[in-house]
Structures are given as C-alpha cells and as structure tokens.
Amino acid sequence: NIAMAAQMTDAHRRFLQVLMSHGIMEGSEARKLHRRCCEIHKAYYAHDKLDDFISTINSHLQPLFMQIRKGMSEGDGRAHYALVNLAETEITKMASDYTENELELFRKTMDLIILSENGFASSTDILNLADQLKTKKMKKKEAEQVLKVFVEDRWLSERNGEYTLHTRCIIEMEQYILNNYQDVARKCNICHSLAIQSQVCESCGIGMHLPCVRKYFRAQTEPRCPQCNDFWSCDIP
C-alpha cells in the first residue's frame, strides 16, 4: 500500500530501532526520542502527537504481527511503551533465551505472584520451588542467579527480596495471563489494563491499580467503589 508506506519516514524507523534495542521505554524517554528522531530527520513534530506517531509505525508492523503497546507501571503509574510480538503472546517468546527448567521456574514464580494477595512473591518462596522443578531441579544458588537474570531482562522486578512482574512482562503477556489465570486475573476498573498489584472491592470484587486508586479517590471525601458505590474499605495508598 503506497499511501501507507508514504507515512513511514526515517524518523519513524529510527524511533522503532531504538525502541527495539531497549525493549521497553518510559513515557518521558519515548517523548524525548520522538522529538529527537523528528529533529534529526527534519520530520513534522508536535509534542502531543506521540501516540499518532506510534500508530503510524503500528500500521506498518501489523503484517509482521508486531505492535508498540502502551502500558502503565504498577508502582508509580507512569506510562511505558513496549514492542510486543503478537504472533507469540505466550511464554514461547522467552523459550529462545532460557532453558526449560529456567522457564519452569519463571512459570512457577508467575503463579506465586498472580495468585498472591498483593501481587508479590518473596524470594524465599520462589527459591523453595527450585528443587521441585519437574524439568530439572535447581540448586538455590543457581535459582538466585536465574532470578537475577529475569530482573536484568525485565521480566521481573525486585524490591527488598520481594518479586513482582515487570511492566514489560505485563504489557507483553497481558493476553497470556488473562487466558491462563481466568479465575484471578482482572483488569483495572479505571484504566482497563491488567492489574497484578491491585486493591479489590470487598463487595463487588472489581480491582484497581494502586496509582489508579490514588488518582480516583483524590477528589473524594468518602471513598466509594466506582462500580457498586459501596464504601472502599482498603487503605488509600
């Protein structure tokens, strides 16, 4: 489609290349990159047109089953952009980078995180799984090293010995998680993206990201559930 091809400039290509090398990028970084790419290639630039700029790239990525997706950091609510392979939305996309028992440890870690109350799993609980792996048991030292790699590769985030899913993992594996954890996985009632670390309404069961909870209840004197209007009993972060 020549009309479509005309929309893709060297500025778009440079943006895509840089994002591919990063895998994921925080919103403010993506905005800076957008500006820089347009300046270098003397392309039209408007500071509020990043999403339009990205949708042009996405229209060209469509036949390749790839897409730049926007997601949110569950910790601070900041926007992130990640390049997602739609042809392999499952853990299969990790298979080329890790051994079978490393993948099994990741799946089991994912289980612990998603099935937990708060969206975190302790290193102790994860390391206890290492010698229960069906593929090939791991020594604790080895498992510690593998967890470190998962953090470096931005599949997991770690804080004070507690692990959760990295923003990159949530953006890339949203569909996989929704399909495979149907009983527990929920979307945030406010931003409609997958919520791992969330608060849940005791009355109707809807969930909200902590940053979304903070934002939603900021203006309210008495916090009430946006769905059922019952009193929101969780502590507002």
TrEMBL record:
Could you say which protein family the record assigns here?
A: Belongs to the NSE1 family.
Function statement: RING-type zinc finger-containing E3 ubiquitin ligase that assembles with melanoma antigen protein (MAGE) to catalyze the direct transfer of ubiquitin from E2 ubiquitin-conjugating enzyme to a specific substrate. Involved in maintenance of genome integrity, DNA damage response and DNA repair.
Localization in the cell: Chromosome, Telomere; Nucleus
Indicate where this protein is primarily found: nucleus
Query: EC number(s) of the enzyme?
Result: 2.3.2.27
**Which proteins does it associate with, and in what oligomeric form?**
Component of the Smc5-Smc6 complex.
Q: Which reaction does it catalyse?
A: S-ubiquitinyl-[E2 ubiquitin-conjugating enzyme]-L-cysteine + [acceptor protein]-L-lysine = [E2 ubiquitin-conjugating enzyme]-L-cysteine + N(6)-ubiquitinyl-[acceptor protein]-L-lysine
Keyword Transferase in annotation:
yes
**Organism in which the protein naturally occurs:** Pelecanoides urinatrix (Common diving petrel)
Domain RING-type residues, every copy: 188-229
A Pfam family cross-referenced in the UniProt record is: zf-RING-like
Which molecular function term from Gene Ontology is one that the record holds?
zinc ion binding
Q: Does the keyword Transmembrane helix apply?
A: no
Please give the Gene3D superfamilies that the UniProt record associates with this protein. 3.90.1150.220, Winged helix-like DNA-binding domain superfamily/Winged helix DNA-binding domain, Zinc/RING finger domain, C3HC4 (zinc finger)
Q: GO CC terms for this protein?
A: chromosome, telomeric region; nucleus; Smc5-Smc6 complex
Keywords recorded for this protein, A-Z: Chromosome, DNA damage, DNA recombination, DNA repair, Metal-binding, Nucleus, Telomere, Transferase, Ubl conjugation pathway, Zinc, Zinc-finger
Enzyme category, top tier: transferase
Mind telling me what this protein is named? Non-structural maintenance of chromosomes element 1 homolog
